[in-house]
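Q: Convert this sequence to structure tokens.
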Amino acid sequence: MDVKMLDGTIVTNVPDNVTQADLLARYSASQTPQAPTPASSGQFTETGGGAAMGRPMNRGQLNVQAEPRPLESVLAGATKSAVIDPVLGAVQLLSGGNVGGQAAKNYAAEAKPYQANSASYLTGQVGGSVLPGVGMAKGAGMIPSFARANPLIQGTSFGVVQGLLTPEETGKTGTNYYKNQLGQAAIGATIGAVPTVLSKGQQLAGALLQKGVGISTGAGGESLKQAYQAGKVGNETFTANMRGTAPMEDVLNQAKGALSNMKQDLSKEYRLGMMDVSKDKKILNFNEIDKAITDAAEIGRFKGQTINTKAEEALQTIRQTVDDWKNLPAKDFHTPDGMDALKQKVGSILESIPYESGRARTIAQNIYHSIKDEIANQAPVYNQVMKGYAEGQDLVKEISRSLSLGNKASVSTGLNKLQSLMRNNVNTNFGYRQELANKLMEKGGGDLMPALAGQALSSYTPRGLVGQGMDVGAGLTAFSHPGALATIPLTSPRLMGETAYKMGQVASKMPSTNMTNEQRKLAQLLMIKAAQEGVK
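A:
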């Protein structure tokens, strides 16, 4: 039979021997809710797959983790920071919080379960800010005026923009919204300025310490700067010279070797240039050369009478050389290439004349330059080659003279000239010598500065009157103020050199010292984002 229950449900085919009480009991038992399926330890996809995008899915069974896994929290934080926040932040900023506010609140609520793993979620948030942050940095970098701006202004500006684009998640609008965003901008600006301020402060402290210790030791600030750099790169030439294991004249030989390299390079460039000149088969005339010889005849004479035999001998020798050259085949010897050979022959006569024979050298120089000018006037290609060669020769001669690198200069004189590069206040010629030394190292190869700095810092006792005076002064002051003894190590070149070298070694191990500009900007962006999330 069929029985209608009190709730209207009809139960069919009820046996006749079942009492009404039994039927009610059985029916009530069938309507008792089943216990939920316990949470499984299934894979990430069992939680609904895209849980990191917001809410976990519920397929009608309670198989979702009671608490999100760390990976889910990271993905949720990254998605919100990289995709959702920049869009909502921009919309809110343009509308004064009137558009996007409710969406920001909803997304914030959906993200709360994932914040149970606070460290993972924050990592995702900070990491997710990289993509929009880098995009903003690249876009700003394309603006020339911003790219040239002071790093402090750049860092502050990045912080302000990131602060303004941070979504407001409590529903504020209008004036209240903008007040909140100004606070976020202030936080971003402050954090954005921190790396630059710390960097500049470190540079200022380093510069003051370098200058101060350079004076107290008498070794000069440049030597301590070189010691620090040597420590960063592990330059053993510096330590060998500072600790006395390398011969002092090694650096002088290195400088002479660099000068020799300059000469060889100059000769190579000259020969390459003359290959183009040799292709010019134009026949040159001797008009200006003959005029120079005629004019030179008056230098060693008075009213036709010879008054300087050395000058007259030089004139006759050069005149005979030129006349002989005129009689040679024009197609081979009167071309630009052939006339350059004549110039070199006259140049060898000039080099053989002692410096004491002033008038004789003047005659030879005048005729030498007349040949060079005649070739240049009639063959433009030769003029271009000789201009660079002449400038190079002048530089080589000036470096050799100023730094005493010639064969006639003594070792001590050469070393003293090179050592003066470490003491930029030693004399008025420092700037000029430093410029020549830089050109020597640039064109000749090899860095002389680490070896020179090591020698300048090799002594345990102060160098120069200023350094020695400070050392003695500290010793005398110690009688009345024993604490002054602590300053004595600051006057020792060797101790300060070892210290600066060790500081360089430590600095080389620090990641920040090896960062590129792009990496520093990225670190700055991450700092700003981390600080903003931390104060929410």
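Residues 36-63, 465-485 have pLDDT under 50 and may be disordered.
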